[in-house]
Amino acid sequence: MTERAYGLLAEFDSPEALTAAAKQVREAGYRRLDAFTPFPVDGLAQILRLPRPKISWIGLIGGFAGGGFAFLMQCYTNYGFPLNVGGRPLLETIIRNVVQQGFRNIFISVNYMAEMIVEHFGDGSALGAAIQYVHETERLGTAGALGLLPQPSELPMVVTNGDILTTINYGALLDFHNGSAAEATMAVREHKVHVPYGVVTANDGYLETIREKPTESWYVSAGIYVVGPTVFNHVERGVRIDMPTVLERVVGNKGRVAVYPIREYWLDIGRMEDFEQAHAEFNEVFP
What we know:
By secondary structure, the chain is of the alpha/beta class. The protein contains 7 helices and 17 strands.
C-alpha cells in the first residue's frame, strides 16, 4: 500500500524558531520525505496531535518558505521547499554571490512554489541580475531543466543546485573549464571519514593487514557544474534526468569531463544538521 504523506506548511520568523520546531518534530518521531502534499493546519501543536496513521512526516519552511556566461540554478532542494539561511533565501545568497563576481545572466528552474519565487526575485534587476525562469511542470531532476532552456547556450554554462552554500570562485571554475579539453566540468569536494576502529583485511579467513583508526578520503560531487554546448545533446526536452547521468553519457560518448576541486567554503544543505550548521556559520562566511 502506497503511503500518503502529509506536510505542515508553517512559516517561522527566525532560524531559532525553525530549529526549535525541527527539534520538536524529531522528538515526536516523525520523518521527512522529499516531497509532500500540503495539509492545512494552524500550527505545529495541532499537527503533532493528529493520529499517527494520519500523518507520517512534517515539512518545515523557514522565512518566506523558502557576464557573458549564464547560470542555471535548480531552486528545489532535498527538503521539498526553498530554504532560508541567515535571514534571507539561500537562493538569494547564491545570486548575490554570482553578481558580485561579475555575472548577470541567470536562469532559475522553478517547480514547487514557483509563483512565490518569481514574485520575490522578479527580473533580478533589484539584485543587479538579469533573471529568466524555466518552469518545470514536474520535477525533471538536476539536469532536465537544460532541455527547457529557450535555446542551448553557445558558451559554457554554470549549473548549480539551489541548496549549496559556497564561496566558490566561479570565474576560476570557468577558466579551469575553458583551459581544458573537456565538454563539461564537475566541481568536487574532498570528503574525509575517520574510522574509529582498527580496519582489518583478510584473505581466505586469514589476517592480512590491520589499519589502526584510518582516515579515508574521497572526492564527492559538489552540485556545481560547467556544461559546454555539446552537453545539451544528451538532454531530451521534458524528460527527467540527473546531472551524473548526463556526465556519464558524455564519457560514454568518448567525451571528457574535467574535475575541479573546490578549496573555498562549501556546504550542501541536504540534512537538518547541515541546515543548522549553515545558520551557525552564515554571518562569519558572508559578513
